[in-house]
Amino acid sequence: MAHVKAGGTSKNNHNNAGARLGVKRFGGQKVNAGEVLVRQTGASKIAGPGTFMSKNFTIHAATAGTVFFEKVKKPSFTGKTVPRTRVGVK
Question: Of the CATH numbers 3.40.50.720, 3.90.79.10, 2.40.50.100, 3.40.800.20, which one belongs to the domain with range 22-89?
Fold first, then answer.
C-alpha cells in the first residue's frame, strides 16, 4: 500500500543546459591539429581531407592548416544523392 498520495505530474522540469552545437572554426581560419571545427548531432556536415569525425559526429582537424567548406553530393543508403557540406583543412 502506498504511503504517499498521488502528487500529479510536474510541468517545470525541462531546465537543462544547451549542447553548444555548431560551427566552431569558420572558412579561412587557421587551425592546429586536434581543434574542434564543428559540433553536431548526426552527420549533416561530413569530414573532408585533413579532418576526422569522432564517434559523437564532432569534426576535428587532423592537420594544421586553413579551414574550408564545400558543397558535395553524397549518395545515401537508398542510392539517392543528398547535398552535404564537406569540411576540410588545407
Answer: 2.40.50.100
